[in-house]
Amino acid sequence: MLIGKDTRISGYMLESSLEAGFASAGVDVLLSGPLPTPGVAYLTRALRLDLGVVISASHNPFEDNGVKFFSAQGEKLPDEWERDVEAALGESPQWADAANLGKARRLTDAGGRYIEFCKSTVPHSLSLRGMKIVVDAAHGAAYHVAPDVFHELGAVVVPIGCQPDGLNINQGVGATSPSALVAAVAEHRADYGIALDGDADRLQMVDAQGRLFNGDELLYVMAADRLAKRQAVPGVVGTLMTNMAVEVALRRLNIPLVRAKVGDRYVLEELTRRGWQLGGESSGHLLALDRHTTGDGIVSALQIMQAIRRSGSTLSALLEGVSLFPQTMINVRLRAGSDWQCNPRLDDAQQSAARELGDDGRVLIRASGTEPVLRVMVEARDAEIGRRCAEHLAAAAQA
After folding, report:
1. Mean pLDDT to the nearest integer, 49-64
2. Mean pLDDT, the chain, as a whole number?
3. CA–CA distance from 132 to each of 157, 182, 185, 197, 307 (Å)?
4. Catalytic choice (32, 56, 58, 282)
5. So what's the pLDDT on residue 70?
6. What confidence score (pLDDT) does residue 306 get?
7. How far apart (Å, rounded) are the C-alpha atoms in residues 221 and 306?
8. Which of 21, 134, 280, 290 is the most exposed place for a label (fewest CB within 10 A)?
């Protein structure tokens, strides 16, 4: 199996613990050191391994950490597998005897292998010569690979967020803090900026005018580009939070949008079930299953750069006519014992909002999975109407 990690200081400790634990059970381990999550997924599949492990807390601050698993096919493991593992934790451990302990070694060329894979996801003819690109790796796992990918394709690269110290991952840089990228693009008069998160599975982009493009917009560009190349796009999977303007724009291209629950694994499950290729989240976690088995910020950025080069246009021009609907979000703290699903006033308010919004907006109400609040979101072409509807819904939810 392969163990990769991001740049958090706690990764050293967890890496050693996992290495020892797997070796004690007779498992041979490869250690890649810092490597993007999608890089671990790729190498697990390419090296014909049984399991891939990533030590990372993605876009969270350095104090957090976690463990992700990938199957031999480089795919995230399903909920059922996780439940089986949790159930097995209560069983007695099975140790290998001294002669059958696992071995461990460093995979010294992991970064280079992954760089070549990223480049292989676009045609050999793609050249970024003549372009200046700011690459922000969030002081995370892609700090030593992302700049090289774009440099080797011909771009002049300005790296930022590429000096990790174990404590600064995602701190004021990266996809979750894109203001650093906007400033760097302006300072260096770059053509585009590319921001990844701590484990490099998310993407945000900025153009020379300082416009920030989120995952919804980039997903639309990927779908429209394939259609322009006469490739079949039977549908796209978004989430409950995907902006309605993108759904409307895709509908004009006769591409249906199906919404999954929030979370990249649910987008992947829906894509797999339907046999589709493209999906993603507003956060920039984008999936192109004919390019990779999981979300990959670098691969997604290359898909966008390919669309720009193919069209001879700008990213802004490729999104002409796609203006994101303003979203109003209100968190409503629920009283103990209240059941918002059986609240007649909230039902009436939802029906009233639906009538007022018509085809120019939508309502999403869902309970938080982490705290006792109800998340009320109204998306509307007219921001004032959306705000008014959201406040009405929030008041009804508290009744």
Report:
1. 96
2. 94
3. 6, 14, 9, 21, 17
4. 58
5. 95
6. 97
7. 10
8. 290
